[in-house]
Design goal:
Blueprint lengths: L2 H26 L3 E5 L36 E5 L4 E6 L21 E6 L14 E3 L6 H5 L3 E2 L2 H12 L3 H27 L4 H12 L11 E4 L20 E7 L2 E2 L2 E2 L2 E7 L5 H16 L8 H18 L7 H6 L2 H5 L48 E3 L2 E3 L2 H8 L9 H7 L4 E3 L2 E4 L5 E2 L7
Parallel strand pairs: 1-5, 3-4, 5-6
Antiparallel strand pairs: 1-2, 2-3, 7-8, 8-11, 9-10, 12-15, 13-14, 15-16
Helix pairs in contact: 1-3, 4-5, 6-7
């Protein structure tokens, strides 16, 4: 988004969020909500600062809220008045305070500067609510404010999952830098000889960020490491054909994340490239299903059946797709859920709620790692990330079960050294689903 478009979209975004918060205030009969950005803190028994990230419910109110918002507080009252309280901070230990991100604030947000930390708790209307990190709630408690009431947090969590156009634009923008980083890594890997540690450095350089700026620690895994779902160790072994690389890495734009995974094959690799191509095709078929009204559970179950067809097609499965699903083989080959909500947090909140105020649903009895339990709707940005993994402990369970004859174990033994494959894009549900990632990266 260009500067003018950002300002317009952000102003409309604030109007929507103000309506959402006013509905919470009215429903719960509250006079005002104060949301803290949180402050910097130190590692235990250390004088080194923990990298700062703002309290997530503060982030919708300020573009790029992780930049110099430490100590800030936003307040919204029952009359719809919005105030942003910002402390002036000068230090010769850190970079000067850069407040460029405040230039896009609409006029309806009144910015108040404070020469010291904001201490307006005592002046808050009786019955007001304070939201912020638990470690910093003492002044609010002392002033009699209700701190982090679950009935407020659940309502805001629900709304966080349903993105405004501005938020979708930020997530789309984050695809651009992520796509460039992924392209650079693929080029370096396919040239041969790079280690995963070197490829991680290539990722940071190509995506234009430091490790502290990543929305999550990048996964750059080769060999059996690719079968560990969140493997975040970088090794020094030079990667040469035949080899498989799985990279799961994203960037942020104005505080909103992208989350992208690709799997690359170097050399012949015993036909593993065919499995990668099959998973990629299945992934795009699943994205085409992401229309409003579809249950997330239905999308997950469709992924198991579609992947089972791919497993049979490439010779890994020796039974029908239905038998692979019913025998629990697909649960072993893809033990995670098909995706999750995406936004301020990579695994964003609110996708396990059907209505504002609902408690998050319990884990599904058959799919406990499914991170969403709701119907897809416009604005509910989420990932679609099917995968096939060769995880020794789960394969052992299949081999010891009645479904043991559903896999070609010779092929399993040839492919398990490559760990696994995952393809992940970021999607906006619509009658014609919008794949934000494929707009930038094939």
């Amino acid at each position: 988004m260009r500067d003018g478009a950002v300002r317009t979209a952000f102003s409309e975004h604030i109007d929507i969020w103000c309506i959402r918060v006013l509905s919470v205030l009215e429903e719960l009969d509250l006079p005002a909500i104060f949301i803290s950005a949180g402050d910097t803190s130190l590692y235990p028994r250390d004088d080194a600062e923990i990298p700062y990230r703002c309290f997530p419910h503060f982030a919708p109110w300020v573009p790029g809220a992780d930049i110099n918002t430490a100590g800030a507080v936003v307040s919204i009252d029952i009359h719809g008045e919005i105030s942003l309280h910002v402390p002036r901070r000068e230090s010769y230990w850190a970079a000067p305070q850069d407040l460029e991100h405040l230039r896009d604030l609409p006029d309806r947000i009144r910015v108040e500067w404070h020469d010291s930390e904001w201490r307006g708790h005592a002046e808050a209307p009786p019955g007001s609510v304070w939201l912020g990190p638990e470690r910093e709630t003492h002044p609010a408690l002392a002033a009699g404010l209700a701190v982090n009431p679950v009935e407020v947090l659940r309502r805001l969590d629900y709304h966080r999952a349903r993105k405004t156009d501005y938020e979708i634009g930020c997530i789309a923008e984050a695809q651009v830098s992520a796509a460039e980083g992924h392209r650079r890594v693929r080029e370096a890997f396919m040239a041969g000889g790079a280690s995963t540690r070197e490829l991680y450095c290539t990722w940071l350089s190509g995506s234009g960020q430091s490790g502290l700026q990543e929305p999550y620690g990048a996964i750059v895994a080769a060999g059996p490491d690719a079968g560990v779902l969140h493997f975040q160790i970088y090794r020094d072994r030079a990667l040469r054909a035949p080899e498989v690389l799985l990279i799961d890495a994203g960037t942020s734009a104005r505080g909103y994340a992208s989350d992208v995974t690709r799997t690359h094959v170097l050399g012949e690799a015993d036909g593993f490239a065919e499995l990668v191509e099959c998973v990629d095709r299945v992934q795009q078929e699943l994205v085409s299903l992401c229309r409003p009204g579809l249950e997330f559970l239905e999308l997950h179950e469709a992924s198991h059946l579609a992947l089972a067809g791919a497993v049979a097609e490439c010779g890994l499965g020796t039974a029908s797709p239905e038998a692979l699903v019913e025998g629990g083989v697909m649960q072993a080959l893809m033990p995670h859920g098909i995706g999750h909500a995406l936004g301020i947090q990579v695994h964003d909140v609110g996708a396990r709620q059907r209505r504002p105020g609902d408690a998050p649903s319990d884990p599904h009895p058959l799919y406990p790692h499914l991170r969403a339990d709701c119907r897809l709707e416009e604005g509910l940005v989420h990932t679609v990330e099917p995968g096939i993994y060769f995880i020794p402990s789960l394969l052992h369970q299949v081999r010891s079960s009645k479904a043991k004859d559903c896999l070609d174990w010779g092929r399993v033994e040839r492919w398990e050294r490559f760990g696994g494959v995952r393809i992940e894009d970021n999607v906006v549900p619509a009658e014609h689903p919008r794949n934000l990632t494929r707009e930038q990266l094939p």
